[in-house]
Write a structure and sequence with these properties.
heterotrimer, A mainly alpha, B alpha+beta, C mainly alpha, B: alpha+beta, six-stranded mixed beta sheet, 20 strands, elongated
């Protein structure tokens, strides 16, 4: 009983110390995120309202000039549109290619699924740069694909330093994200539903369209948004595979900040594009919502 | 001095009240069963004793020390969890030794004591095994050994037999009881199985919806339930509504749908009060309706509505009028059939009237 | 159906296989049929001052970042899974946010921010900060998944037997979530090692991670020395994935469902 008695005495003080102690756990993460993530982004917003200068990164004079310059320049809109277009096309192609993979993966027996997951995730860990390099080797004029085409008697095709190369690279890099999104959802669809549909007379194709696809839409939804966002943010691929002909927003923003040293202009452009992407996604979400209502 | 004292314990989770003003005392060496249906607050109560839940109101005392604010590791309770909670990455030996290591006992002593108790609970040869390599019964005994080796002041058991199959459950029941007696340790045993509670406990605390219904030795809970809820929960019973017509000493006379009935009754019943007569199926007997009633026994007339073969017994439902159906269990040779007019007879001392409207 | 799936997998793996082949190819250009096997490019890589220097730098950077990200991320996930109460969803989103915004933007934001607060020569420290920022989410996601599955009654049993909060964590919780921690750590390591976007903006003279070195190289030359760097990355990626699969199962990375 002495043990319990002694315990009762120090107990109340312990209790409040315990509560504070546990909340300290999140302090480091919170500090890092607030100081090095939230603040810098807020700062970016502020900088976008500063005046560009030739002698310093920026002058501490508030102005909306950066935005107005951008909004009035047709070149800005060209680049924005082009980036969004690339985003859309990449997302669409990724969806088509990733879906069969996702279904196959989700329905695979345990053992095989492990192997397939390794195959799908490993490319992600190899890094964008290396994979892009691989595509350079494949797609150049003297690259493997053209060697093959010429070997079978066809003309070589320009697969690099243009939109085609960039699209191929982007699709390749972001397919795993689409696969993971969709596969996760399909795995939660009870296989018994497909069996039930088949037993009621629906063929494999019909079952797929009427049962699996509708139920997998949340994953498709999440995946398309994810891939779209990642694509329009990509720097390495348009840079290496597009040469100087394909100009996307990230490329232009980096160039504005690091080569032209126009920090306010670059920030404004980045924020403008961020807002536009959000708008595009919002429209997409609404359209999907309406479609869901109609079906 | 009471070994465990629960003093007006109340536990609220938001708006929901899990335990309401519970006051209970356990004496040294007693095994008390905390019995009730799922969700009645018994596990919450146990967890408050162990220190994993803090009471919203009330105090917990172990011996003469108030431990309400003490953390679990300082309370010296031995606890066996429902899923055993054996550390999967430690062997049986290491699991059992854990509590002693926490108390800083030296290695040789730990090894000696572990060896002793492993032998005692019949786990010899299994010390190096991991929990996943043990059967359910073996895991159970490991959990018990782990809890008992630290010489706790009290033993807390949370439905320890729930995960075992029926036969093993019966064996383990007696085993736990004998261990508990041998160690002479005050034990609080949570269960929803009323048969288990009646077999094992020195006293049974019946908890329903967070409120203590009755706290008595098993026979009393069974034969003299304090409320309809308790009567209905423990074993099978017929509950016959009636009104108290007269009362004398511990006897009452009731007006029921089946006629006048006399029985023993709860002291709180007054003349004119609404009551429920609890009479268990095993105390009801059939008589021939044309033969005159015996002296001193109650009698009702009715028609057999259902007859179900249960193996060792036959279950009858008899309609004695105005929506009152009695359940009777007779042995296999009972001749009564569906549709027969019968008389149902019972000894007044076997009936127990309780106040109606008690929670 | 299976054929289609196979083709897509081939598409996924093609550039990776090609890089390894190029590194082992005896010729300067990868031809089909391949000219022959050779390790001359590995030798060239080992002799290249700039490559070996940046390789070492990347490895050192990744090690430091891994330690920081693992500690910060694990502590955060403990809090979020167990003590966060009504802040749970907000914190979850915040912890994963660095992954949701373009890395290149984060790099720019950090660059400009450091200047704004007067931190001129950010060097290694700046890179550590930037990398940790994007590695913590991975550690967080993986350890959260493991912690959610963790049986809390084991901790209760330990406390009941006399272990205080610290001893319980050290003797019971930690050994049992070890797998998740290791997986998170190796994921963080590889992420930092491969990180490009943030490094592009924050690296400087003498603090150049391998991916940046590679990028500069690739803009102008094309010989397979770069492919050797690629092969090293590929080898690392395989090891990490296999470790994670073994310890934790890759299913914790499902993004849309589970």
């Amino acid at each position: 009983m002495a043990v319990a008695r002694a315990a009762a005495n120090g107990a109340a003080a312990d209790a409040s110390r315990r509560v504070v102690g546990r909340h300290l756990l999140v302090a480091p993460a919170l500090a890092v995120l607030v100081v090095f993530f939230v603040l810098p982004y807020l700062n970016l917003l502020v900088i976008s309202l500063m005046t560009p200068s030739h002698r310093a990164p920026y002058l501490r004079v508030l102005t909306l000039g950066n935005y107005t310059t951008l909004l009035r320049d047709p070149f800005t809109w060209q680049v924005i549109w082009h980036t969004l277009w690339i985003g859309g096309v990449t997302t669409a192609i990724s969806l088509v290619l990733a879906y069969p993979l996702a279904y196959h993966l989700a329905r695979a027996p345990r053992r095989l699924r492990g192997v397939l997951m390794v195959l799908v995730i490993s490319p992600l860990l190899v890094g964008v740069l290396i994979r892009t390099y691989g595509w350079m080797i494949l797609l150049q004029d003297t690259g493997l694909v053209n060697q093959f085409l010429r070997a079978v008697g066809l003309r070589g095709a320009p697969l690099m330093y243009n939109n085609t190369g960039v699209l191929i690279g982007l699709v390749h890099v972001f397919i795993p994200f689409m696969v993971l999104s969709i596969a996760g959802t399909i795995q939660h669809i009870d296989p018994e539903l497909e069996f039930a549909a088949r037993s009621l007379g629906a063929g494999a194709w019909r079952t797929f369209w009427r049962v699996v696809v509708p139920l997998s839409l949340p994953g498709v939804f999440a995946g398309t948004i994810l891939v779209f966002v990642l694509t329009v943010s990509s720097y390495v691929i348009p840079s290496l595979l597009g040469g100087f002909t394909v100009l996307t927003v990230p490329l232009l923003v980096v160039r504005t900040v690091t080569e032209l040293f126009n920090w306010p202009g670059g920030s404004a452009f980045a924020i403008l594009f961020f807002v536009i992407s959000l708008a595009v996604i919002w429209l997409y979400v609404r359209a999907m919502g309406r479609a869901a209502h109609l079906s | 001095m009471a070994q465990i004292t629960l003093d007006h314990l109340t536990k609220r989770f938001g708006d929901a009240v899990a335990v309401q003003d519970l006051t209970l005392e356990l004496g040294s060496g007693e095994l008390v069963a905390l019995l009730g249906p799922s969700g009645c607050g018994k596990t919450t109560t146990l967890r408050m004793v162990a220190g994993f839940e803090t009471p919203t109101e009330g105090r917990v005392r172990l011996g003469d020390a108030d431990v309400t604010d003490a953390p679990p590791e300082k309370r010296n309770c031995g606890m066996v969890f429902q899923n055993y909670a054996l550390f999967p990455h430690l062997t049986v030996e290491q699991n059992v030794a854990f509590g002693l290591e926490m108390r800083g006992i030296d290695r040789t002593e730990v090894r000696r004591r572990v060896g002793e108790i492993v032998e005692k609970v019949g786990l010899r040869g299994l010390s190096r095994r991991y929990p996943r390599q043990l059967s359910g019964g073996q895991q159970q005994r490991t959990a018990l050994a782990r809890a008992l080796i630290i010489n706790p002041s009290v033993l807390l058991l949370d439905e320890p037999l729930a995960n075992l199959d029926a036969k093993l459950r019966e064996e383990m029941r007696f085993y736990i009881r004998s261990l508990q007696r041998e160690f002479h340790i005050t034990t609080l045993y949570v269960t929803h199985d009323q048969a288990e509670a009646l077999v094992l406990a020195d006293r049974v605390a019946v908890l329903m919806n967070g409120v203590l219904q009755q706290y008595d030795p098993p026979e009393r809970v069974y034969q003299r339930p304090r409320s309809a809820a308790v009567a209905g929960f423990i074993g099978l019973t017929n509950l016959i509504p009636g009104r108290v017509r007269a009362r004398a000493g511990d006897r009452v006379v009731l007006d029921t749908a089946g006629g006048h009935v006399s029985s023993l009754g709860d002291a709180s019943l007054r003349e004119g009060a609404d009551a429920l007569l609890s009479i268990r199926p095993e105390h009801l007997e059939f008589r021939r309706p044309d033969v005159s009633p015996e002296d001193g026994r109650n009698r009702m007339r009715g028609t057999v509505r259902e007859r179900t073969f249960l193996g060792a017994l036959i279950d009858f439902r008899v309609d004695v009028g105005r929506d009152l159906v009695l359940r009777i269990q007779g042995n296999v040779s009972a001749p009564e059939r569906v549709g027969d007019i019968v008389a149902v007879s019972f000894d007044p001392a076997a009936g127990w009237a309780l106040p109606r409207g008690d929670g | 159906m299976n054929l289609a799936v196979g083709l897509v997998y081939a598409f996924l793996l093609a550039p990776i296989v090609v890089v390894v082949l190029a590194a082992l190819n005896s010729g300067a250009y990868l031809r089909f049929p391949p000219e022959g096997l050779s390790i001359r490019w590995f030798v060239a890589f080992a002799h290249s001052r700039s490559f070996t220097r940046s390789l070492r730098f990347s490895l050192e950077l990744a090690t430091v970042v891994t330690v920081c990200a693992t500690v910060v991320g694990t502590m955060a996930s403990l809090w979020v899974v167990r003590f966060s109460g009504r802040f749970r969803n907000t914190l979850r989103i915040l912890m994963v946010a660095p992954l949701a915004v373009p890395g290149i933007l984060t790099g720019i934001a950090l660059l400009i921010f450091f200047y704004a607060v007067g931190w001129e020569k950010t060097g290694l420290a700046g890179l550590i900060v930037g990398h940790t920022l994007i590695c913590v989410p991975y550690v967080f996601l993986i350890t959260s998944a493991v912690l959610i599955r963790f049986d809390r009654t084991l901790e209760e049993a330990a406390r009941n037997l006399g272990a205080d909060a610290f001893k319980t964590f050290w003797r019971i919780t930690l050994p049992l979530i070890k797998g998740g921690l290791i997986s998170g750590a190796v994921f963080a390591f590889v992420t930092s090692y491969d990180e490009f976007n943030i490094s592009l903006l924050l690296s400087g003279v003498g603090t150049t991670p391998l991916p940046i070195e590679l990028f500069d190289y690739l803009r102008f030359s094309f010989d397979p020395t770069a492919a050797v760097a690629g092969t090293i990355s590929i080898g690392m990626a395989l090891v990490v994935v296999l470790i994670t699969q073994r310890l934790v199962g890759l299913e914790s990375l499902y993004l849309g469902g589970g």
